[in-house]
Amino acid sequence: MGADGGVLAEATSPKGMGGLARDEFEPALAELIADWDLRESTLVMACGMVGSRQGWVEAAYRQVPCTPVSDNVTRAAATDPRLDVRVLPGLSQLSPAPDVMRGEETQIAGFQAMNPDFDGVLCLPGSHTKWVQVSAGEVVSFQTAMTGEIFAALGAHTVLRHSMADDWDAATFLEAVSDGMSRPEALAARAFGLRAEGLLTPDSARSARSRLSGLLVGAELAAARPYWLGMPVALIGAPKLTAHYAEALRAQGVSPILTQGDAATLAGLRAARKKLEPSL
Amino acid sequence: MGADGGVLAEATSPKGMGGLARDEFEPALAELIADWDLRESTLVMACGMVGSRQGWVEAAYRQVPCTPVSDNVTRAAATDPRLDVRVLPGLSQLSPAPDVMRGEETQIAGFQAMNPDFDGVLCLPGSHTKWVQVSAGEVVSFQTAMTGEIFAALGAHTVLRHSMADDWDAATFLEAVSDGMSRPEALAARAFGLRAEGLLTPDSARSARSRLSGLLVGAELAAARPYWLGMPVALIGAPKLTAHYAEALRAQGVSPILTQGDAATLAGLRAARKKLEPSL
């Protein structure tokens, strides 16, 4: 980023916390930006699992209620003097229920920078979907549902792996959302039903993915009702995924705002840099 | 087994449908019983996934309502003339919801042989727990919940793998059963709560396994309420697992009978043999 926050160059890598030991983070970054022309002490703003206990450096959680980012960042050791690495801490909550986030706080800060007057609820769908109540620039409380990770585990590591074609059917999804909201206790039976149907009427496999996804999202919406009911809601994330959540919410009479997750992350990192270097 | 149904010898192997190609079943059996003294055309009664599409031979489902076993068995090809292999078909159901079972029908037949006058509900807990309504010797309807497989997938293939100590706490389990019954929609949030708690208060990992199991069993009990409410209930399966289900059911005022799964399987194979050779 330039001094004005504009993007000068970008690069991405699939290498992350899951596959890197502590001393492999700097080499992974160095490899990724080898052809960039860096000046001495270039500020490197990092967020997400890079700050977890297994990350480059552990950046201790900040406890809500608080602003999503602050000037409290953790310096990560780097051998290259051109890298001045700062890792943003995640957020934690003890009550009403223990919860944590890492990375989403940066997207929340980015959303707030783009929508400074927004008071309401943010939903960040993903492996660990976050429902976040924000007010007056602070994160008040949040609730995580590991809907995406449950979907992935059931689709890949149970008998359902035989039943999950790639097709997506929007009507089936919405029907399943409604079913999952009203009968969430039936998930384990409905899930096996997809397998049984696949055996008895092989063509049904084409709708299994939309059905399983809808059942899980429906249960999540039922559990998160106190978050979205009667509230302004914004969805932040990958376009396809937020579109599915938006459809499900619209069926409940909610009209969410949609924001791209990447843009929110970038705006959040920019906001965090401003906290460190207010002159920028 | 002798002519009277008594056990003459037994052997077990971990090799099953998941790891064997069609032409590897006979060698696996031959290896297992190599030192048995078999006569020509020894009847080999087989049930379970050995009769699935990927098994030794496909034994087509019989549709409920019907008796759990019949003289309808499928012969599997064997090169050894001493082996006369018969595979029991599973059961299928089209309504009220598509469902299938393989192997459990044999345990049901075994239970009925031991308890000929039982009318009520059988619960066979496992990877795919079966709730089965039996009446006048027939399986009337059934419902599968893939509770066990969901538990295994979440414990091994999600972030919860970091939080699952081996400890078991009966009080925590029962508390979670009650929570899962009354708030099944919160599963994805409660599950992530176990992870968050593990990060924020590391000692809590010791109860995570009992908690996750209870949440899933609780949701299953809520979904299966029409099966067990006000009905005589018998549990068939591995002693530890049936004991957990029994505790959960007792908290709901149900006093189930407990039957060992292995004994039921053996009695069921014996009952199936009687259908083939009524003179025995």
Automatic annotation (TrEMBL), chains A, B:
Q: Which domain of life is it from?
A: Bacteria
Which Gene Ontology MF annotations are present? 2-dehydro-3-deoxygalactonokinase activity
Keyword Transferase carried by entry: yes
Give the record's keywords alphabetically: Kinase, Transferase
Gene Ontology biological process terms in this record: D-galactonate catabolic process
The protein's name is 2-dehydro-3-deoxygalactonokinase
Specify the species.
Answer: Palleronia caenipelagi
